[in-house]
Design goal:
It is built from 12 helices and 7 strands. It has about 350 residues and is of the alpha/beta class. The chain has a 7-stranded mixed beta sheet with strand order 3-2-1-4-5-7-6, with helices on both faces. The relative contact order is 0.16.
Length: about 350
């Protein structure tokens, strides 16, 4: 007999993430479909993966990339094409949701993040589940393994004692929620997934359309989502400082003063017919960490060197921690039709 499943599953848009294009994806894909032609779509800074998910409705092949550990595993879970057993995962999650934190010993996650990013009881349960997923890894294929981890990431993120990222935790005592693990809802796509520096990947692959949405300010995503990265890799790193961060890794040059130079190198080396760039106008923000490292005019100049560029804009309320006023914020979309293409070897 087929089991009736709970429809309350996490979609890829369910995650809290700075710069998420979840509410803009319809506008972005509408313009891309109107202005661009082709079947291969490359999302080279995929972030949450919501643009790739939307693009999968219209393009026959997606190439998805991000070098952040948690993002990469999330793509494997949502977009990976391997078959998986939902019944098996349903039974595993059912067992996890019957756990009593009173019967769980302290673990790496609860010792470090309990009563900080999560309540002590919630942290004990999250840490136990993550350790157990590793224990049963041999009984799972890669798709099932990444679905369980991603389901844990999404479920934990929903109850985290944060403003939506992990640069720090709120100083109030974390609420002790009745933690429940929910499955994600994978997407059927024809996808290739990379975890690579975007400027290096640009030299290796061909796509008809490349969507470019890099970080523009000094906020390093690997530092903002370090707790989720640790939950994914489960490497149990030594942590430092009040925010309990590991040693820096996966630091982006797009968040540094050399960002214009790095952006130009990327655009110059993309192998494609169309380049689509998202940009938000936080350049004049009073917050140093929010101020863009690349200016609007620089974006235009660099793109115009590759071909005729059209510019679109839309008023949009930017997701932030609540401390920065982005009054009059607008999202820009640049669409460049690449001129004088050299012969490209398609992947």
């Amino acid at each position: 007999m087929n089991r009736v499943y709970n429809n309350d599953e996490y979609t890829i848009e369910s995650r809290r993430y700075i710069g998420s294009k979840a509410k803009l994806s319809g506008w972005i894909l509408k313009l891309i479909r109107e202005e661009c032609e082709g079947e291969i779509f490359l999302d080279i800074f995929a972030g949450t993966g919501v643009i790739s998910a939307k693009a999968s409705l219209y393009f026959s092949k997606q190439i998805i990339n991000d070098f952040i550990e948690s993002n990469y595993v999330i793509y494997k879970a949502f977009f990976g094409m391997e078959e998986w057993d939902k019944e098996k995962l349903y039974m595993i999650i059912k067992k996890y949701n019957e756990l009593d934190p009173k019967n769980i010993e302290e673990n790496y996650f609860s010792v470090n993040f309990g009563n900080k990013y999560f309540s002590k009881n919630n942290a004990k349960v999250i840490g136990y589940i993550r350790e157990d997923i590793e224990r049963i890894k041999g009984l799972l294929n890669e798709k099932e393994y990444t679905i369980l981890i991603t389901s844990l990431v999404y479920s934990a993120d929903k109850i985290a004692n944060t403003v939506g990222h992990y640069d720090s935790f709120m100083k109030v005592k974390p609420k002790d929620f009745d933690f429940k693990l929910k499955l994600i809802k994978p997407i059927k796509t024809n996808s290739i997934i990379f975890k690579e520096n975007s400027n290096i990947l640009a030299r290796k692959v061909f796509a008809d359309i490349v969507y470019v949405d890099p970080p523009y300010n000094s906020r390093q995503y690997s530092r903002f989502y370090h707790v989720l990265d640790t939950l994914v890799t489960w490497d149990k790193p030594k942590l430092y400082g009040a925010a309990l961060k590991p040693s820096p890794k996966n630091m982006s040059d797009y968040c540094r003063a050399k960002a214009p130079e790095v952006f130009k190198d990327l655009i110059d080396n993309l192998k494609c017919s169309y380049i689509v760039v998202s940009y938000n106008n936080t350049y004049n923000s009073k917050s140093n960490s929010s101020r863009n490292k690349i200016g609007l005019d620089e974006i235009k100049r660099i793109l115009n060197e590759r071909g005729k560029t059209k510019v679109y804009r839309k008023k949009y309320r930017y997701f932030n921690s609540g401390k920065t006023n982005f009054k009059g914020h607008q999202e820009y979309l640049f669409i460049t039709k690449v001129r004088n293409e050299q012969t490209r070897e398609k992947n």
